[in-house]
């Protein structure tokens, strides 16, 4: 018999006397907390779990299941160390573009029955994620190979300013036909510099592999697929088990990144060998090497184009040796390329830039075409099942994918321009980075200016809304003495809380600005060097002067951002509060599995959701008691995901209590395929009962708006905040405005929990009889 189906000590049956156990399983929100704070008791004990995530109880409640009480026992599931516990995660901010493009995969519109279109949407996002990997690796090659090894090390004055490059610099005797240092040959300098992006790729591979072993390898509870196709895919047994796909994407992206470095090393050598008087042997070898690189790149792209996630079942297999061997094959080709480029070629000198302009232009064009195709597919999916609450009318996924590509481009161009300024200074000794990267760096100030205009507009709108709210606050407290300062504060907090609902506008403005500036950057790069005559020429000169100013300012802004990034990272390494603040970013952004980019930060829910599911299923089976799953903020999203993963027989025995919940306000609007109206309605039908608390002063939580008229209302009336307008006998001191915190301090919380337990009691099914040693099921269906 399976161990999960054996009857443990303390198993209750219908014949047991006394009150049935009642449990409230608390799940905290973003930022993390301690079990002592969650349970309101300095003495807590760990019931189950480890140092990363665990379930705690008060010390006095450790054996409460054996002697049930009249009030529910509280347990606290603490998962903050999954995101904000490790100081090294502060440095994961560099992976932000990868995380953003991974979010685009989950933002598709809901489209029941449109499997082919859904697969096409996922394929386009995966290809966009691949171009992002290639872009950032190409930017690293631009800095290490082009700016440092090719340009600066090839110019004596530049290398003299940076003594650490002296061993790479050709001597004057070498230019006259003599012998320089062994590393002074251009191909050998490129091969040595290629170790920098190769080391970066190996670091990304290592981090992805380590987190894959720690997160994607946690098996969720096995159960049969849901027959209800209108529900959420989060109920599928394999949704939180993306082990196979992440391994495949990791192999393909690592191979593509290494092949990008190999191409950057091979291209200048091949261009020199293709000259009419070049050696025939090296010319043939260059074509063979090029064909091998293209063939292996085609294999990597094919691996990415294969079917994506297997959500209908627990896919425990891994892909074949060819896919798993992609990184080793690419590494072997890189080594061969370094040997080929390092071969002595008389007369080969480094001059100008490496041939990188066409590559960056092609990448930018490919990203634009992929985003356009993604928008067409997303719009078609939205038209099939329109949802007026969906963010940007179904175009949020393409918009976020475009922002990810733009963020990668701005980072690439800004860093390249900043390194070029550092190497060259004001001497104009070096040609600098490719023209397109320079133009991309120039887009940073206009983007910041657009954001500033948007912030000013939102500030004016918030001020107007605050004036309207002041009248509403006055009418809500008739008969109480007027306190203008108190009224102003409450109205201002309410108005500020509505800014969350303006996020689609912010994303739309950023997307439009990015699209226009990207087109300008591409056009400017193509027009560089083609100066017209006459009035058009004077206009071109003026535009060129403005662009150069913007480029210089963008370069310094990137440098300032890098300094702030390093400072923030060092502070987070030493300061737990700062580390927790950075962890909030990952709490929100890394809820979703890595379905598009394997180098994105890992999905903590692939550990947290199985933890909650196993705890609820085993406790209800062992005790036969009533359970309230209580989630705050992001914890309510984890609670809903865990409830979806429960077998139907267990799901119908629990009550769901959410407060400060972004389930509909954020997740329902931005991820309609998984938290849309039909998905939330299905969850409402499946759980025994559901209650939701929110405040008008809460900038994150809100009503869940379950579209189900056949069941009791889910959303409670908005809670009063503050609990008292002025001084009262119950509140002799001014009551604070709680906003998103301390929902349990409101008396309505205890009343709602009691109501859910009372509704749960008559619907609780009797405990199923135990079977013998034949291995039959006990207490749940699979």
TrEMBL record:
Keywords: Membrane, Transmembrane, Transmembrane helix. Residues 772-782 have a biased composition (Gly residues). The keyword Transmembrane applies. Residues 1-45, 759-782 are annotated as: Disordered. The keyword Transmembrane applies. This is Integral membrane protein. SUPFAM superfamilies: alpha/beta-Hydrolases. The chain crosses the membrane at residues 120-140, 190-207, 251-272, 284-305, 326-343, 363-382, 394-416, 436-460, 503-529, 549-569. It comes from the Bacteria.
């Amino acid at each position: 018999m399976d161990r999960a189906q054996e009857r443990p000590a303390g198993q209750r049956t219908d014949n047991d006397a006394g009150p049935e156990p009642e449990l409230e399983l608390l799940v905290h929100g973003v930022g993390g907390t301690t079990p002592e704070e969650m349970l309101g008791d300095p003495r807590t004990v760990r019931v189950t779990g480890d140092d990363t995530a665990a379930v705690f109880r008060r010390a006095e409640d450790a054996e409460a299941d054996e002697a049930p009480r009249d009030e529910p026992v509280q347990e606290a599931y603490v998962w903050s160390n999954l995101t904000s516990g490790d100081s090294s995660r502060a440095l994961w901010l560099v992976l932000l573009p990868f995380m953003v493009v991974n979010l685009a995969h989950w933002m598709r519109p809901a489209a029941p029955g449109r499997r082919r279109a859904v697969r096409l949407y996922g394929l386009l996002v995966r290809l966009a994620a691949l171009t992002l990997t290639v872009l950032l690796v190409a930017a690293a090659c631009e800095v290490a190979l082009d700016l440092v090894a090719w340009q600066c090390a090839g110019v004596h004055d530049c290398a003299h300013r940076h003594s650490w490059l002296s061993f790479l610099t050709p001597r004057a005797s070498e230019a006259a036909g003599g012998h320089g240092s062994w590393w002074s040959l251009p191909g050998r300098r490129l091969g040595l510099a290629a170790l920098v992006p190769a080391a970066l790729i190996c670091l990304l591979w290592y981090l992805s592999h380590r987190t894959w072993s720690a997160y994607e390898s946690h098996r969720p509870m096995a159960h049969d697929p849901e027959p209800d196709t209108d529900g959420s895919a989060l109920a599928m047994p394999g949704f939180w088990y993306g082990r196979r796909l992440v391994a495949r994407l990791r192999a393909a992206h690592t191979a593509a990144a290494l092949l990008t470095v190999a191409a950057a090393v091979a291209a200048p050598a091949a261009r020199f060998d293709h000259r009419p008087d070049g050696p025939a042997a090296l010319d043939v070898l260059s074509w063979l090497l090029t064909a091998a690189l293209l063939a292996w790149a085609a294999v990597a792209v094919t691996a990415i184009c294969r079917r994506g996630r297997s959500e209908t079942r627990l896919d425990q297999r891994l892909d074949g040796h060819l896919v798993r061997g992609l990184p080793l094959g690419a590494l072997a080709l890189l080594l061969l390329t370094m040997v080929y480029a390092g071969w002595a070629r008389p007369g080969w000198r480094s001059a100008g830039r490496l041939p990188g302009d066409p590559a960056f232009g092609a990448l930018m064009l490919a990203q634009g075409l992929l985003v356009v195709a993604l928008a067409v597919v997303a719009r078609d999916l939205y038209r099939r099942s329109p949802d007026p609450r969906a963010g940007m009318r179904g175009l949020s996924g393409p918009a976020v994918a475009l922002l990810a590509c733009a963020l990668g481009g701005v980072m690439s161009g800004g860093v390249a321009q900043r390194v070029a300024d550092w190497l060259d200074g004001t001497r104009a000794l070096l040609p600098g980075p490719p023209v397109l990267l320079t133009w991309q760096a120039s887009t940073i100030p206009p983007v910041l200016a657009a954001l500033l205009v948007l912030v000013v507009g939102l500030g004016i709108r918030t001020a107007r809304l605050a004036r309207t709210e002041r009248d509403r606050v006055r009418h809500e407290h008739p008969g109480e003495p007027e306190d203008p300062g108190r009224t102003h504060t409450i109205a201002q907090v309410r108005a500020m809380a509505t800014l969350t609902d303006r996020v689609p506008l912010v994303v739309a403005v950023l997307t439009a600005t990015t699209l226009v500036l990207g087109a300008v950057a591409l056009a400017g790069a193509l027009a560089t060097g083609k100066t017209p005559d006459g009035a058009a020429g004077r206009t071109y000169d003026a535009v060129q002067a403005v662009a150069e100013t913007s480029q210089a300012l963008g370069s310094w802004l990137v440098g300032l951002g890098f300094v702030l990034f390093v400072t923030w990272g060092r502070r987070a390494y030493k300061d737990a509060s700062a580390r927790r603040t950075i962890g909030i970013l990952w709490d929100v952004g890394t809820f979703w599995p890595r379905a598009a980019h394997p180098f994105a930060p890992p999905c903590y829910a692939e550990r947290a959701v199985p933890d909650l599911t196993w705890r609820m299923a085993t406790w209800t089976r062992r005790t036969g008691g009533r359970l309230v799953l209580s989630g705050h903020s992001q914890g309510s999203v984890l609670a809903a995901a865990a409830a979806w993963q429960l077998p139907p027989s267990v799901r119908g025995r629990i009550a769901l209590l959410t407060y400060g919940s972004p389930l509909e306000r954020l997740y329902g609007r931005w991820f309609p395929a998984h938290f849309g109206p039909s998905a939330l309605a299905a969850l409402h039908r499946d759980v025994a009962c559901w209650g939701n608390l929110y405040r008008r002063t809460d900038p994150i939580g809100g009503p869940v708006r379950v579209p189900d008229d056949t069941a009791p209302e889910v959303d409670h009336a908005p809670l009063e905040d503050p609990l008292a307008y002025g001084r009262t006998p119950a509140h002799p001191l001014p009551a604070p405005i709680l906003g998103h915190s301390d929902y349990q301090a409101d008396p309505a919380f205890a009343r709602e929990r009691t109501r859910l337990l009372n509704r749960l009691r008559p619907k609780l099914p009797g405990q199923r009889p135990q079977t013998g040693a034949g291995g039959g099921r006990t207490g749940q269906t699979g």
